[in-house]
């Protein structure tokens, strides 16, 4: 292949060089050997396939490098080599209540109605399939009963693939899937016998029917069997069935919609095995709207967390709790701590968890950050119960360990934006763009220490029509203290009865006339966020001058987001050119910023 | 009767007529497999789908393309080996990793 240049391999170059070579060697005139001739066409096709092959090679190689891989499956696969098991999707779980219809008994033979395990329902609100999971193969319900029967439902549909046992030690199989699968639901059967799923090979007893299920190296899931001493080897020629659940993750969440409508897809049966349309037999009510569904782990997060994967599979210290909970993607912030460094030893086995839900997952098209209901910023009691269940069911907690989810305080702030603007700009347009940019900022930037004014200034000064901007935060806590003339400081201690951190007393600090304690703000005027606090831009309170701040942004009243147009300047040619010069200068600064972000483990785990 | 002038080279073919190059021992390890999502099987039709059907009317060209097809498929399969070698959960000769 000496006629091919290896400097830049493209289809066109391969074609041209091969064409020149062939016309030269075989003495073909260019009239006879053209792209339209049979061999000309073949040459075109082969040069294109050749380029594709080079592309595949380059892609395959770059996908083997953790830093350069782009495919999500590749990133997950490479992280598996570190021991990290990336979280696949998590299906939403809820509860439905079935009430037998009064006239149901008439058309059904026998005494009872049978609902089988894995009965499928469809939610008419989102068209997704949900499944009833039972502890046994079926549930029999007296057809004349007037009781309410509760069933757990899980979003998703089942799929099975099968493999052939080899009879050797440490068999492994790669199950390729075309959609995200549920992280928790996988069943493995060998010749029809179910195998338990373990986290580590060393947990499986000798000849025990057990296996490992992990996120796949090439996408999907991988199944590993033992060597006889740790887990039974599937015999040669045995049928290995892997059943998994295709999940739509957060799309399955019904966002508290208890009025959602479900309909049965799978039929039930009567006492004699005749099919029964369950929709004719039961009324379906939503008892607990499906929730807690989440998308597969963010690959950017996988890249950072993988080197810090715990190999112990034990929730032993706060870091392991953070690692465990962060993988699930329910929370925008996870922190865990214990109080071993104080003198009170009775609560040293308690791991305190600070969990802030990911509000982006709760937004609907008619809501933005500024109008999202306040209770969505914190965990509800149901959500807390589910976190405790998640930890219990993981089987990874130490026997003596306890958890407490800390109730975070919601701190309300208002933002006052003062502008100088170009006189040809549309004020309502400026307001609208500012709100949109701040909405994106607060949804995506989740700092846990400060909300700098300079961040907002930087965003707002790029809004078309804005010449100069200043931003001020107003803290509800601070304004209330000034109005009252005092504020209370909580003195925390430990309650020996509940063995929990508890409020022992409050100390009242009286303010002198005109004194501003600056509560919730630092010396820069930036918002300061306490350990157990979350910050929300929200009104519904009075400031020191008895001005009422409306709960949601309002253009005509003082509210949680206020834009004041203080003065205008002429949009003449000189000002516009200077503005353009500044934009060029800033863009050059931005594009030349190649700083590598430090990914030290403590900052990563902390948030 | 149409005589295929390339028939004496049939043993060179690696397509299904000659068992696709898969050994019988390897085949018994996948007897009970029911594996989904393996992607489109382009192996028999890579070139046939890329060139004008007019070319395939000519028996000589058509037979020649079969050999050419096998070579191109082999090149592509060789690239897949990179992914298969890196995936320690599957046999090095597996064909179902895309």
How are the elements arranged and paired?
The complex is a heterodimer of chains A (607) and B (98).
Chain A (H helix, E strand, L loop, with lengths): L10 H16 L11 H25 L9 H9 L12 E8 L11 E5 L2 E5 L5 E4 L5 E5 L6 E7 L1 E8 L7 E4 L5 E10 L2 E6 L11 E6 L5 E5 L13 E8 L15 E3 L3 E3 L4 E2 L1 H4 E10 L7 H7 L12 H9 L4 E7 L12 E8 L23 H14 L7 E4 L3 E14 L4 H18 L5 E2 L1 H8 L5 E10 H9 L1 E10 L4 E11 L16 E2 L4 E5 L3 E2 L5 E2 L11 E9 L3 H19 L9 H6 L1
Parallel strand pairs in A: 10-11, 19-20, 21-27, 21-30
Antiparallel strand pairs in A: 1-6, 1-17, 2-5, 2-15, 3-4, 3-14, 4-6, 7-13, 8-12, 9-10, 9-13, 11-12, 15-16, 18-19, 21-23, 22-26, 24-25, 28-29
Helix pairs in contact in A: 1-2
Chain B lengths: L23 H5 L24 H4 L2 H28 L12
Report on this model:
The complex is a heterodimer of chains A (607) and B (98). With 607 residues, chain A is an alpha+beta fold. In chain A, the strands form 8 sheets. In chain A, strands 7-13-9-10-11-12-8 form a 7-stranded mixed sheet. Chain A has a 6-stranded antiparallel sheet with strand order 14-3-4-6-1-17. In chain A, strands 5-2-15-16 form a 4-stranded antiparallel sheet. In chain A, helix 1 (11-26) crosses helix 2 (38-62). Chain B has 98 residues and is mostly helical. Helix content of chain B is 38%, strand content 0%. Chain B has 3 helices and no strands. Chain B starts with 23 loop residues before the first helix and ends in a 12-residue tail after the last helix. The model of chain B has no long low-confidence stretch (mean pLDDT 79). Chain A binds chain B through residues 38, 41-42, 45-46, 48-49, 52-53, 56-57, 60-61, 63-64, 77, 159-164, 166, 172-174, 176-178, 216-218, 220, 222, 224, 237-240, and chain B through 28-38, 46-47, 50-52, 55, 58, 61, 65, 68, 72, 75-76, 79-80, 82-83, 86-90, 96-98.
């Amino acid at each position: 292949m000496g006629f091919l240049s290896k400097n830049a391999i493209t289809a066109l170059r391969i074609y041209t060089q091969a064409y020149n070579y062939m016309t030269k060697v075989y003495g073909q005139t260019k009239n006879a050997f053209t792209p339209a001739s049979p061999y000309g066409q073949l040459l075109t096709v082969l040069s294109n396939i050749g380029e594709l092959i080079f592309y595949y090679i380059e892609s395959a190689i770059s996908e083997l490098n953790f830093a350069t891989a782009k495919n999500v499956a590749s990133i997950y696969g490479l992280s598996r080599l570190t021991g990290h098991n990336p979280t696949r999707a998590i299906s939403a779980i809820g509860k439905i209540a079935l009430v037998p219809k009064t006239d149901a008994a008439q058309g059904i033979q026998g005494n009872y109605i049978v609902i089988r395990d894995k009965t499928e329902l469809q939610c008419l609100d989102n068209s997704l399939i949900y499944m009833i999971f039972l502890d046994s193969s079926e549930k029999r319900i007296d057809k004349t009963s007037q009781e309410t029967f509760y069933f757990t439902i899980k979003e998703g549909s089942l799929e099975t693939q099968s493999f052939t046992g080899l009879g050797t030690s440490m068999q492994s199989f790669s199950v390729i899937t075309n959609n995200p699968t549920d992280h928790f639901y996988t069943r493995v059967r060998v010749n029809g016998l179910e195998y338990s799923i373990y986290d580590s090979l060393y947990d499986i007893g000798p000849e025990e029917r057990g296996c490992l299920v992990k996120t796949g190296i090439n996408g999907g899931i991988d199944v590993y069997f033992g060597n006889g001493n740790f887990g039974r080897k599937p015999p040669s020629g045995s049928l290995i069935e892997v059943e998994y659940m295709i999940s739509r993750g957060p799309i399955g969440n019904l966002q508290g919609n208890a009025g959602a409508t479900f309909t049965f897809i799978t039929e039930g049966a009567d006492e004699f095995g005749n099919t029964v349309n369950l929709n004719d037999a039961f009324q379906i009510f939503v008892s607990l709207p499906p929730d807690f569904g989440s998308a597969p782990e963010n690959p950017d997060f996988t890249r950072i967390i993988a080197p810090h994967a715990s190999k112990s599979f034990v929730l032993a210290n706060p870091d392991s709790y953070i690692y465990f909970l962060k993988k699930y993607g329910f929370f925008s912030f996870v922190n865990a701590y214990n109080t071993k460094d104080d003198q009170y030893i009775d609560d040293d086995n308690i791991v305190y968890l600070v969990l802030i839900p990911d509000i982006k997952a709760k937004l609907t098209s008619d809501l933005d950050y500024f109008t999202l209901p306040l209770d969505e910023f914190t965990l509800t009691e149901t959500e807390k119960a589910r976190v405790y269940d998640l930890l219990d069911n993981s089987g990874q907690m130490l026997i003596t360990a306890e958890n407490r989810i800390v109730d975070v305080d919601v701190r309300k702030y208002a933002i006052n934006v003062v502008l100088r603007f170009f006189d040809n700009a549309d004020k309502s347009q400026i307001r609208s763009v500012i709100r949109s940019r701040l909405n994106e900022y607060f949804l995506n930037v989740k700092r846990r220490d400060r909300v700098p004014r300079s961040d907002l200034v930087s965003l707002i000064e790029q809004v078309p029509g804005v010449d100069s901007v200043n931003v001020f935060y107003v803290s509800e806590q601070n304004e209330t203290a000034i109005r009252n003339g005092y504020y209370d400081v909580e003195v925390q201690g430990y309650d020996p009865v509940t063995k929990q951190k508890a409020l022992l007393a409050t100390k009242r600090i009286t303010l002198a006339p005109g004194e501003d304690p600056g509560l919730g703000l630092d010396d820069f005027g930036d918002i300061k966020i306490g350990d157990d606090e979350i910050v929300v831009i929200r009104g519904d309170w009075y400031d020191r001058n008895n001005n009422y701040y409306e709960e949601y942004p309002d253009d005509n009243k003082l509210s949680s987001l206020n834009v004041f147009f203080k003065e205008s300047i002429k949009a003449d040619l000189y000002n516009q050119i200077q503005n353009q010069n500044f934009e060029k200068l800033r863009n050059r600064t931005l594009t030349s910023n190649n700083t590598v972000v430090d990914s030290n483990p403590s900052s990563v785990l902390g948030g | 009767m149409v005589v295929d002038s390339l028939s004496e080279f049939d043993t060179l073919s690696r397509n299904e007529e000659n068992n696709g190059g898969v050994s019988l021992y390897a085949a018994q390890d996948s007897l009970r497999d029911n594996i989904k999502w393996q992607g489109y099987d382009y192996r028999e039709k890579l070139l046939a789908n890329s060139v004008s059907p007019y070319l395939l009317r000519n028996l000589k060209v058509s037979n020649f393309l079969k050999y050419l097809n096998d070579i191109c498929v082999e090149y592509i399969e060789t690239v897949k080996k990179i992914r298969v070698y890196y995936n320690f959960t599957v046999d090095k000769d597996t064909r179902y990793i895309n």
